[in-house]
Amino acid sequence: MTCLPEITPGQKKLGLVIDLDTCVGCQACAVNCKEWNASGHSGPLPDLKPYSAGAEGVWFNRVHSYEAGEGAQGRTVHFPRSCLHCETPDCVTVCPTGASYKRIEDGIVLVDHDICIGCGLCAWACPYGAREMDEDAGVMKKCTLCIDRIYNENIPEAQRQPACVLTCPTSARHFGDLGDPESKVSKLVAERGGQPLMPELGYKPVNSYLPPRNRTSLAAKPDEAAPTPMDIKNPLLRWMDKVLTR
Amino acid sequence: MPEAPIPLATERPDRAVDYSPPVGDQVKTTTCYMCACRCGIRVHLKDGRIRYIEGNPNHPVNKGVLCGKGSAGIMTQYSPAKLRAPLKRIGPRGSGEFAEISWEEALETATGWLRHVRETDPRRLAFFTGRDQSQSLTGFWAAQFGTPNFAAHGGFCSVNMAAGGLYSIGGSFWEFGEPDWDRAKYFLMFGVAEDHDSNPIKIGLSRLKARGAKFVSINPVRTGYSAIADEWVGIRPGTDGLFALALVHELLRTDSIDLDFLSRYTNAPWLVVRNPGGEDDGLFARDEAGKPLAWDRSRGAVDASLADLSPVMAGEFTLPDGRRVQPVFHLMAERYLAPEYAPEAVAERCGLPAERIRQIAAEIADVAFNQAITLDQPWTDVWGRRHETMVGRPVAFHAMRGISAHSNGFHSCRALHLLQMLLGAVDTPGSWRYKSPFPRPIPPGPGPAGKGAKPNTPLAGNILSFPQGPDDLLVDDEGNPLRIDKAFSWDAPLALHGMMHTVIGNAGIGDPYKIDTLFMFMANMAWNSAMNPGEVIRILTETQEDGSYTIPHVIYSDAYYSETVPYADLILPDTTYLERWDCISILDRPIGSAHGAGDAIRQPVLKPDRDVRPFQDVLIELGARLGLPAFTKPDGSPKFKDYPDYIMNHERMPGVGPLAGFRGVDGSKKGVGEPNPDQLQRYIENGCFWRDHLPPEQGFYKHANKAYLEQSKAMGLMGKSDQIVMQIWSEPLQKFRLAAEGHGAKQPPDRLRERIRTYCDPLPIWYPALEHEGQDLGRFDLSAITQRPMVMYHSWGSMNAWLRQILGANKLYMARSRAAALGLAQDDWVWVESRAGRLKCQVSLMEGVNPDTVWTWNAIGKRAGAWNLDPDSPEATRGFLLNHVISEWLPAQGGFRQANADPVTGQAAWYDLRVSVTKCAPGEEGVTSPHPEALPLPPHMPARPDLLRYSMKANP
Amino acid sequence: MNPAPSIVFFTTASGAGYGLLFWLGLLRPLGLVQMSPMPALVALVLALALITAGLLSSTLHLGNPKRAWRAFSQWRSSWLSREGVAAVLTYIPALLLGLGLWVGAPALAVIAGLLAAAGAVATVYCTAMIYASLKPIRQWRHPLVVPGYLALSAFSGAVLLAMLAAFSGSGTVPAVLAILSGAAALLLKRAYWRGIDAAPPIATIESATTLGFIGKTRTLEPPHTEQNYLLREMGFRIARKHAAKLRLIAQLGGFALPVLLAVLALLAGGGLATLALTLGAVLTLAGLLVERWLMFAEATHTVTLYYSGT
């Protein structure tokens, strides 16, 4: 179980492509994820001390914000973080019970909550902080890529997408098969130079982050030659004789 | 948009997964109310509880997306902060001691107080609502009651936006217009954080960026939308108008203006009388029929609306009667070509290099004139001439509270509209577009109702309306205000949305008079909705010598235990947005778009589990009990059963009611038509909204598009189908100015003459914040502003268990360089001091903020004990309100108290605040200040759970 | 990483227990420690008590302790599973050793003892590998972690055995072993600390966010203003000064003093030796608790890059 499935060419790798160029940090993905999954495959996602100090709950998606660079080159970047459904995830191999598994059919990394003993080792093994303990039930929980939406025959076909993708107001999230080089998401990654997070750890994340684009800049330059009001005696003259018709 | 769905896997042996659970057992559409955006939602229910709320893919506002707030509706519905039953105060005000009472007792108590007021002096009722979306009902009810003292929260929100736009271009940014997201090539966004149109802006920005258009954000802070801008212009707060006028200067200097557009669609060619000191100085020269004149190249002064006019745009002319006149264009160009508007002259004030301003002007000009858009779309203009194409200047603008919440906001907003007009970028392809039912005539309607209030008599007309000049002001013969908030007086002649922020302060000192009953709905005036909440609380609890309260009766309706509840005498508990009918009415602020008019409803998707009633039902019932004519039948019995009955059957004019869709007995009419008993059902079947689709030939140039204007008139959206000529020179403002100069029967009191003369300029001006006059700006060396966070909407979110995890406390953000100079490090505790007071909070350092500006998230700080949160919650211990250091009054000006507001519109000038920041002394850290004592809970509020396991899963 | 008391106790107690079991199983057959069956049985009981207490304590860390039995299934990939299997398997020879001692079956005791010693090594090795295989935690991923675990286990086991053997007057060899393994463990530990202090971070906020191409990256706002599981579990940080002090305490109390006391015991012999070795054992275990606590407290997880940038 916790041995990783053998990767074969063309293997389906479902995942997300997240566009850091358009994410405005509105938290729609995080909250919509929470509400879908609260009653979804992994639900409930408990919230401790919900109306007091120290309120904290289980969330599968958290949106950070960063500032990169300084001065005119500096940028503010909003950064949603969730499970990357890695190709070679240690969170699966470290699991002592087989509760944590990577599906051969689509590459989704899941936890079987009926088996999980809540040892927390998978969360330690995940460099990205994608796993959160349901401390009430004592089992680990994580992003399921909305496995109960994407194949759900009770949901209209156009909406068989992860909740975070459907709800994103700036279309900063895309879902698809990153194992298929011809898929829309793969092409997007290729066109925009999608990046994996912390590639140096060797987990081969499936999810990809599209970097903020180069700023659109225009060639127009100020017309320094145009007269300043001080240069000409009556600057309005030029409009006086303009013949206009309606 | 998301990619096509993944085909079903043929083989899925995973036994641990249920792939196709039913989402719920029922799904209902309605309209979101987690902020003011009015998105369509689909609420999935299971066993009578909410399973999931998603965006309605068919809805024109949000097209299926839903923001973080909307997605958290479940937790707003099931919050333990919900009020449970009507309450009667039994302890002193503010003690929070209440007894539950029956609705009958509550309604009889309210009726008793209100009947007495109405029978004696109806002005002594001040009826003010917050961000409610039923102003067409509440305003109508107030007029029926007979009090002029009604408004919603617009006066402290964005009336500068509305007034600036409606008096310039007959529409406005905000809810009355939108950028052409699909065609704009250059987009300038001024002072926008999460605001009205939250999801449409997000959707639009992503479309704009996907096309590679350039997005420039002018904002002191680089967060949210500004974070994804191609260029962030970190301007100093309150100088946007000056920046805009410097752009105007540059466009004029380089002759990068659309003279044809100006001559056809604006009053640029209209002739202005030049008669300094005379009573007609600055007014338009008009013919006998009252039509404005222009100077025709061959014929001299003629009717400016003639189709064959060949206007001379600059020069000075003499009319046959001897009066000297000049075209508006001439006066405008002359003013803004002056050196004081040159980029060099404004650079220091705006905190931007002159070259940068010139560069932006050059880019705007380049896109507008070298990259113009031509659509092969024939259309017919108001003169009946067919055009084969639609030409557009693809430069779009949008602006919001960062512009409007300043005392110079009205003129700053006018300056932006002037820029649009100069570029020919109003309702043309690629530019900013009107949302139906706009454009409307300038100004859109008659003056405000409110004169001659007398017992038991309704006021005729709209209370919040549009003064055309001094005669329309609500003032007595001495020039004193008739309204408690002094809206539409010489204090604020164009206070189109009232001035809620002054009501309690004015009532407290009986200026202009005392009131008997303060009736509020959804307005958290004892906390985040007030400038200086401490003072509001003081007034609400102040007693006279006989022990009675200065404001004798306070009635408040809210769904939650907000900070204002303890200061009311009678609480009428409202439902949540998912338990009610509502109407996002065509008569108020509907959901129309550039593609056509639209409106929407809310339907109850859940039944209340407590003894609460929708406020609108209560208002209609009170109307009937009070015998208000429009709410009673001739025999005195109630005219409307409830709010849905009112929505369907109320007619403001024959055939015109709250909803424009599915009118007529068979539901086939739009705009005008007989009431339809199935109207609400038809809305429900349509996803709880109605939308008109304009044919392509009506898509642009709506201000001068014959087909559009005629259609608009036929639908009852406008009284006439005349061209709407945009107003560069505003004659109503000049009329106020002339009065200040001593002309006419209605003149301002002497103390306000100079103020009116200065600020009622017919052309846009810029001036430093009134708040800064007489202040030691060296000591208070930082501007302080707030932003709405995208995930929290003021006081609509802290009782939400999910949203408060995301933002449960706020810090004061400051430039890293500035903090270093002040010796401050990340998370240091500081005192923030203004002329009005001081507060204590933590600082957070960042790069993307104007170095002379500090800012924080708005309304995250909560009073301990409110919202059924534990008093130790971070909202109360680490959250804070900047409001505590904002004064609701300007520094004394000649001994008269003036609202800290725009002198033209009365818009609360929240963002004029100046502060100093100093490090706390050791030992002062830990809890924000002020930290008023914790509020006790009303009776029978549910206990706060320690653990929440919300789930509608089959076997959780 | 959060030094959860249950885990700190587990690694200290079961480490010492397995060390004791190892030496007991190894030295008796080799005749390097002369313990009659009864004292040996006492030593075995102590070893198993420490092991069992440690293992039970570790289940306190589980969200679902009643399902702990499931942890034996994934020995093919999971070091935690292997540790569980090894721990359980080691009970078999250990109990047989006890049986041999109890019923006086020396051959059984010898064979079972050697097997138990091997099991002890295997179990400690698996425990160490749980930590050493975690890439996101560079202080655990370090090559000296496994040798360190083994050395610490050997040292604490030797100290305990020396103490017990001293009561039966045969503490010399274990005391020598304690001195040797203590010195080795101290050297390893010091090398380890030097190593983690000098090592570059495994990843940076720039690589964690992909934003390095823009410039230096800083956190602006956290996703939530309150704490969460990840931060409580992995966001634990110890001040450098505080860590340095604790390192000194661990080195002096946990290693240097016990070694010196063992030397003293060798020199003094008799009752004083017993006293010195007993004191040494107590100090060792206390010092190791500090060292184990530090092992967690000084470990940093890459997830904190997202929250604090370091």
From TrEMBL, chain B:
Sequence ranges assigned to domain 4Fe-4S Mo/W bis-MGD-type in this UniProt record: 25-81
Record region (Disordered): 1-21, 440-460, 922-945
Principal place of residence: other
InterPro entries: Asp_de-COase-like_dom_sf (IPR009010), MoPterin_dinucl-bd_dom (IPR006657), Mopterin_OxRdtase (IPR006656), Mopterin_OxRdtase_4Fe-4S_dom (IPR006963)
Cofactors, names only: [4Fe-4S] cluster
Subcellular location: Cell envelope
SUPFAM superfamilies assigned: ADC-like, Formate dehydrogenase/DMSO reductase, domains 1-3
Gene3D superfamilies documented for this protein: 2.40.40.20, 3.30.200.210, 3.40.50.740, Dimethylsulfoxide Reductase, domain 2
Pro residues bias locations: 933-942
Keywords: 4Fe-4S, Iron, Iron-sulfur, Metal-binding, Oxidoreductase
Entry's family note: Belongs to the prokaryotic molybdopterin-containing oxidoreductase family.
Name by which UniProt lists this protein: Molybdopterin oxidoreductase family protein
UniProtKB/TrEMBL annotation, chain C:
One Pfam family here: DmsC
Entry keyword set: Membrane, Transmembrane, Transmembrane helix
Membrane-crossing segments per the record: 7-26, 38-63, 84-103, 109-132, 144-165, 171-188, 246-266, 272-290
Descriptive protein name: Dimethyl sulfoxide reductase anchor subunit
Species of the source: Belnapia mucosa
